[in-house]
Design brief:
Helix content: under 10%
Number of helices: 4
Strand order of the largest sheet: 2-18-17-14-15-16
Shape: elongated
Strand content: 25-35%
Largest sheet: 6 strands, mixed
Number of domains: 2
Oligomer: single chain
Radius of gyration: 25 Å
Length: about 400
């Protein structure tokens, strides 16, 4: 990887152990800041409750993590430069240290206890990604490893865990969790094979260690440490920021995945079949974008999957439902749209299924994979949602198989 940025790594002393919608993030990135491992923490007894009085914290050229133990004690962990890794930061802040600004998605978790309605649950400096470099002289097949850590450095190059934050000290090693936590889920299986399933959600600490989930998102009691699991990202790993979820795609995985051109080709294939509306007897068209001639757009009956055009037949009095003229099943109807983000696809198959209730189309394996991902929602709940629009899925299984009247020439 290339970088023209400043870099950070550990000191020379003993090491301290350490919902557009779902954002698709590739590992082919260039960051602003890099660092390696942590140096030994320095336990400092303060004569003032203001940790900013410490030189290591006040100096913007020095990156540090401050663990406040009490009004008179804090553990400060300093970083030094390294040229083998790149650091990328994610958060709600638009300040310079943040490489990827993320806002709450539609249908994001409700405010946690003590927060006001409308207040974002995403941290301004939510998490950081540490990625090994692939320099010009390296073997092009050298694997690029990316790791995720909770919390990011602010504009003064600091991370603060206050007195009330969940933190602990074991064998002189400090670690902690952020208020709403950074959750991580690796796919169970190879993402691009189309055979992967949802893994288990875990929480990542500030030091990059992995823990089972807390009883509630902002609980002060940490989960059990998972010593056999790591914070190393896999192709298809999900990072939940409590308000938005990131999908990590590796460069190797993207090379084996559909592209925008492939998605557009699938749209052409659907239209080449000249699907017909059985009521209006007109040819339907799947637009490349959210547009098109109204009477040519495709609509799907979500209960049965029959695809038809726009018409007035089958309205059910007093309900926002219609009766399908093909099989007479009564249910909701929605407009079909192609899922346009290729990074969400797990295979190259044509679009044969659609999410309920939004109507986004994708391949069968893609729809089924995402329909059974339990996305964290609220203090301790989960929900299934469409990756293309973040709308919660309805009914079981949350999707329908499409039945076209096509290729009838």
């Amino acid at each position: 990887m290339e970088s023209a940025s400043s870099m950070l790594s550990p000191g020379e002393t003993t090491l301290l152990a350490l919902d557009p919608v779902i954002a698709s993030t590739s590992s082919d990135l260039v960051g602003d800041l890099t660092y390696g491992q942590l140096s030994r923490s320095t336990l400092v007894t303060l004569s003032t409750p203001n940790v900013m009085d410490l030189p290591a914290v006040a100096d913007e050229a020095t990156h540090s993590i401050s663990y406040t133990l009490s009004r008179t004690q804090a553990v400060i962990v300093e970083y030094v430069r390294d040229d083998k890794t790149d650091l990328f930061q994610v958060g709600r802040s638009s300040e310079k240290p943040i490489d990827f600004v993320v806002m709450d998605t539609a249908g994001a978790p409700p405010p946690t206890q003590g927060s006001s309605a409308g207040q974002s649950t995403i941290s301004r400096f939510a998490c950081r990604l540490l990625v090994t470099r692939r320099d010009a002289g390296d073997n092009p097949e050298k694997p690029v490893q990316a790791c995720v850590f909770a919390a990011g450095f602010n504009s003064e190059s600091n991370i603060f865990l206050g007195e009330k934050a969940t933190k602990w000290q074991e064998n002189n090693n400090m670690d902690g969790l952020t208020t709403n936590g950074i959750l991580l889920m690796h796919p169970d299986g190879e993402f691009v094979s189309g055979n992967a399933k949802a893994g288990k959600w875990r929480e990542v600490s500030v030091d990059g260690n992995i823990f089972s989930l807390r009883e509630a998102r902002s609980s002060s009691r940490r989960g059990e440490e998972q010593r056999d699991e790591a914070n190393v990202l896999m192709d298809g790993s999900l990072i939940d920021l409590c308000g938005a979820t990131l999908l990590w795609r590796s460069s190797e995985g993207l090379q084996q995945s559909p592209t925008q051109r492939h998605v557009e080709r699938m749209i052409k294939i659907v239209n080449a079949g000249k699907p017909q509306c059985p009521v209006g007897l007109n040819t339907l068209v799947l637009p490349r974008h959210n547009s098109g001639v109204p009477n040519q757009l495709m609509y799907v009956y979500l209960q049965c999957g029959h695809v038809q055009g726009r018409h007035d037949w089958g309205f059910v009095a007093g309900a926002n439902e219609r009766q399908c003229p093909m099989c007479f099943v009564i249910g909701a109807v929605t407009k079909l749209e192609m899922g346009l983000e290729p990074a969400f696809y797990v295979d190259f198959e044509p679009p044969t299924h659609a999410f309920n209730p939004c109507g986004h189309m994708a391949s069968e394996k893609t729809v089924k994979y995402w329909a059974f991902i339990p996305f964290p929602h609220g203090p301790s709940g989960y929900r299934a949602m469409c990756p293309f629009c973040a709308i919660s899925l309805e009914g079981y299984p949350g999707f329908t198989k499409l039945i076209f009247q096509d290729n009838i020439d």
